[in-house]
Amino acid sequence: MSLTCQILASFLLIFIVSTKGAAPENNVVWGTLGHDFDLNISGFQMNDNIDDIRWEKDKTLIARVKKGKLKDLKDERYNVSTNGALKIKHLKTEDSDTYRVVIYKIDGKNVLDKTFQLKIQEEISTLDMFWNCSNRNLTCEIKNGTNPELILYLDGTVLGRAVSKTISQKIAAKKWTTKRSMSFNCTARNEVSEQSRGVTINCSEKGLDIYLIAGICGGGIIFVSFMTLLIFYINKRKRQKSRKNDEELEIRTRRATAKERHRKPRQGPGPAPQNPAVSQPPPPPSHRPQAHCHRPPPPSHRVQHHPQKKSPPPSGAQVHQQKGPPLPRPRVQPKPPHGATENS
């Protein structure tokens, strides 16, 4: 035999020897917190040949039935039924432990030796479900329960599952529809209890479809843009029209000014007054001209006296221009005689 085969045979022999005397696995049983619990012995039938039944917790004797009489009770919450099962009242968290039962016949023969692993869980409470039609979100939760598993269904199809007290699932748009009612079901369970609740959701009146919302938003944006452009266009036309009116008014003003300039040279001057002194405004009272003293002219400027000619009355235009009471006529200085001028 080769060395490899010898080594392999040695390992197999060691494995068989080590596993031959191994104790069988404990039977795991589950109890509900706060409830009464019976630790039954499966496959055992009570008869008159049974003499002694012993129950141990973590290798400590807690209850015993000897010749049909109950004795050695560790706690008043413990009891042994007529079929040999251990009864525990109002399970507590500390009751979770390893339990062993040993049964003997009258002749002292060991009939049964069995071990149990008791685990305790809190019962699942009532389920609560919440949903939001706008974001297509569904939530299922419980208040109490040890190690719960939550499963969410839509029309019998699993949507999601979670090992927690709350499950929140966002439903896909193709599944979340507002055109019909949707049936959701939530199930919460653990090893000792199970709760389930179903709801029918109809979001046709509670929310708007995403496409409708997008259409409304797009239409609003287009409308606002159109109104903005329209207002801008109207203001621009008003400015252009106002500018055009200002230019037309300026052109008309220039034309009117040019016509007035052409008309002024053609108009003849009015009749000049023969006596300019008459048309002059009267001086103020304090500055009235005083009569000049008559001085004889020099010999070279002596002229003959001629009768003074009266000035013609002012023309109608001049009379029309004067308003108010008639103005006093200024005194006219006498002219030198004509003869004196000639002699000089």
From TrEMBL:
The keyword Signal applies. PANTHER family: SIGNALING LYMPHOCYTIC ACTIVATION MOLECULE, T-CELL SURFACE ANTIGEN CD2. GO terms for cellular component: membrane. The chain crosses the membrane at residues 210-234. Residues 241-344 are annotated as: Disordered. Residues 268-287, 325-337 have a biased composition (Pro residues). The keyword Signal applies. This is Immunoglobulin V-set domain-containing protein. It comes from Ailuropoda melanoleuca. One of its GO terms (molecular function) is signaling receptor binding. Residues 1-21 form the signal peptide. GO terms for biological process: cell-cell adhesion; positive regulation of type II interferon production. InterPro entries: CD2, CD2/SLAM_rcpt, Ig-like_dom_sf, Ig-like_fold, Ig_V-set. The lineage of its organism: Eukaryota, Metazoa, Chordata, Craniata, Vertebrata.
